[in-house]
């Protein structure tokens, strides 16, 4: 069963052989790379040019187009319930790797205590992807709202002599509809970010604590085994010397001491081999692997925390921007002054149009990058886990 699970996971994850070991100049290469001054902005931009990131974006776009075709003219502007939004857009089922069902069957055959911490990591990463799904829906709603404002700006670009009462009526009607809409980035989304952040912090603390405990336990076991080996070698050496001294003083007892000498030497060699064999078996080597798995999970949680902190700031900015736009639209409708409508539209909407679209695009990029980071961390962790399946 374990071998079958391992083959299935390896085929799905396209796991290749481990990375090659460092050569003669491996340490020098590492030192050189650490000595180089990192350019954070350039590395951030480079992440958006990688092949894996482009593949994620293409998959998201394909999924959005497919959902649009199968759902017809479904209006996401009126979809504010998370469950309804997920029924429309289920990116986690399409993008998340490996799938949660595969991991569930894998954990069913694992009984170690540390696997519960790893399972918590996979569950939290799944919840993170669901929040990313809802964010894509929020972005879609915001773009629809932008198209409504775009219609008003086009109407106001007409010459004042060509603007009729119907044009103003249509503009006010569009602004009123925009003002009545809910904010596509509601406060509930920000609250979910806070809850998820707390869950990330708690899980990171648990993983770090378990990592330290396991590492200390491994060091303690190794210390005990080395102490036992040293004790056995010293004891055997002392007995051998004692038998040799006894044999020299009592020549007649030499033949009697020989069998005992052979037995002691054989016993010492056997204990040394057994100790070394135990060192290579589960109790130490397995703990080393547990330490590595916990470390990978902790790093995955840390990366998720950074990604969601960035998205949280972007969502908060977009929330404030949408509230401001809704307020301006409501004021325009309430005042109903045709002569000031064009000026307000140009000053409050048209001038900030590029900035608003850039913020939406930046959020979309960050969501795709978060998907990419989650998948990479999950695949690396599963690759370590299947070694022991």
UniProtKB/TrEMBL annotation:
Which key words tag this protein in UniProt?
Answer: Membrane, Transmembrane, Transmembrane helix
GO (cellular component) term, any one: membrane
| Membrane-crossing residue ranges in chain numbering | 223-244, 250-270
Domain of life according to the entry: Eukaryota
Q: Which InterPro entries match?
A: DUF677
Q: Where in the cell is it found?
A: Membrane
Fetch the PANTHER family from UniProt: UPF0496 PROTEIN 2-RELATED, UPF0496 PROTEIN 3-RELATED
- Name the protein family: Belongs to the UPF0496 family.
Protein's recorded name: Uncharacterized protein
